[in-house]
Amino acid sequence: MSDIKQSDTKDEAPSLYAKHQVIHPRSTSGFYTNLRRLAVISLLGLYYIVPWLMWDGRQAILFDLPERKFYIFGLVFWPQDAIYLTFLLSLAAFALFFFTTLAGRLWCGFACPQTVWTEIFIWMERWVEGDRPQQIKLEKMPMNAYKLRIKATKHLLWISFSLWTGYTFVGYFTPIHLLTEELIAFNASGWETFWVFFYSFATYGNAGWLREQICIYMCPYARFQGAMFDRNTFLVAYDEKRGEPRGARKRNETKELGDCVDCGLCVQVCPTGIDIRDGQQYQCITCTACIDACDEVMVKLNRPKGLVGYTTENNLEGKKTQILRPKILIYGALLVFFTSAIGYLLTQRIPLSLEIVRDRNLLFRETNEGFVENVYIVKILNMDQKDHTYQLVAEGIEGLKLELGQKDLKVPAGKVVDIPLSLQVDPSKLTKKSMNVVITAQALDNPDLKISRDSRFVGKNK
Ligand code: SF4
Ligand code: SF4
User: Fold this and answer.
1) How many structural domains compose the chain?
2) 321 and 284, same structural domain?
3) What is the pLDDT of residues 29-70, one digit of tens each?
4) What angle do CA 130, 237, 287 make, to 5 degrees?
5) Which residue among 211, 276, 282, 295 is best mutated to probe the pocket of ligand 2, counting the most ligand atoms within 8 A of its Cβ?
6) Which of 52, 120, 124, 334 lies 20 to 30 Å from 84, alpha-carbon distance?
7) Residue 399 backbone dihedrals phi, psi, to 5 degrees
């Protein structure tokens, strides 16, 4: 057996494992930082406030899974409305393609939940531990009472915020007032308790500990977004022509240097720990922090801003950026199509569902009066928020008679009613063995609530 250790060989394979380096991004200020703050505050504000909004005596937005109803302000969606979800998902996909092709990864930098929650966790961290230099100092410090107190305070804050997040999340699925009472009385169901803690744990883990690792290693969007980029896509980039050769300005410096003074601030503020001067990298989430950091340096040096900027590859090469291009026009047209389709479907939506099921045990029978009779089960779902009484009408064969299993067809709001229905016709009116009939349900108090379904009427061979 050879006594040469594997690590002694020259062509040792590089390790596939890289130890995680904790990133302490330095705080920034400036135009893009303010924009990001605004995005974080408004998006998180919406998330925490929306479950508390009321509409017509109920929660305005509620995804009631046990009842299989989605309440969105004045609208109630049922599983029968799955078409809206399909269109909405298509709209979201094309909106992502459109904005990525046009403006790069703005979603990642400003609106993705991972970024938004990470940002607020970083704010809390800075509030407790201080900015990057203090955080690094604290990290290097051996554990002592001071460090323990600071770390415990930070984690307590993170955990409290995570619990609030988990509780709010469940409040989108269980009425939040009821959930609050249940939690205070330690009376919440097992599932509600599980999801509050699960979502809290996910928030604490993702925004507190994993942070940029989610974007770099787990997010599929980071991997395929490059396919949507072209030379006219806006992205965060370093102007190499202007910045190089980089270097610190020394007294009596004779070498001709570019505008980059190699201060490293653009790297220190980066939440994913990359150096934008190395060119485009999939780890860049377009948070734009490096732009503000570099602009501050340029202002101090009395140089024009924009050495690191939000620009396009064509711009950097001195060429014109073309905004309107085939990809943008195609994605834009699809966006308009799906938005209009959803708008149109919503205006045409009738909160009423009707199903007609033929009695399969008996094709037809003859009544004592000599009529041919077919029996059906009619299922009426009142998807409206008011009770309605409906009338049923059958058409398609001359002299068609309709008899209901009950006199009054009253269906309470949000309920479904199954009733037997009999259609009878004089056999002489049957021109074929099986004929089409149309059954219509219409609310007596609102003629617009009207829906029709086709079915078959089966008789004897002539
Ligand atoms: S912040 Fe600007 S000047 Fe400083 S290293 Fe980065 S690119 Fe160069
Ligand atoms: S390179 Fe700049 S824009 Fe990209 S993630 Fe880092 S700081 Fe944000």
Assistant:
1) 2
2) yes
3) 999 999 999 999 999 999 999 999 999 889 999 999 988 889
4) 40
5) 276
6) 52
7) 75, 20
Whether residue 250 lies inside any domain: the answer is yes
Residue type, 39: A
DSSP string, 19-36: PPPPP-PPP--SHHHHHH
Last residue of a domain, one of 292, 320, 349: 349
For ligand 1, atom 7: residue with the closest CA? 260
CA gap 81, 381 in Å, rounded? 12
CA of 52 to the centre of ligand 1 (A): 45
Nearest CA, atom 4, ligand 1: 263
**Is the residue at 1 inside a domain?**
no
Sequence-distant (6+) residues with CB within 8 A of 293 are 26, 28, 265, 266, 268, 269, 308
For residue 420, pLDDT over 70 is answered with yes
pLDDT in tens, 353-409: 999 998 878 889 999 999 999 999 999 999 988 999 999 999 999 999 999 877 779
Task: Give the contacts of 234 (CB within 8 A, at least 6 positions apart).
Answer: 102, 103, 104, 310, 311, 312, 321
CB 48 within 8 A of CB 168: yes
CA 223 to ligand 2 centroid distance, Å: 16
Are 392 and 312 found together in one domain? no
Query: Cβ distance 118 to 285 under 8 Å?
Result: no
* Residue whose C-alpha is closest to residue 42's, from 111, 114, 124, 123: 111
For 46, the 3-state DSSP assignment is: helix
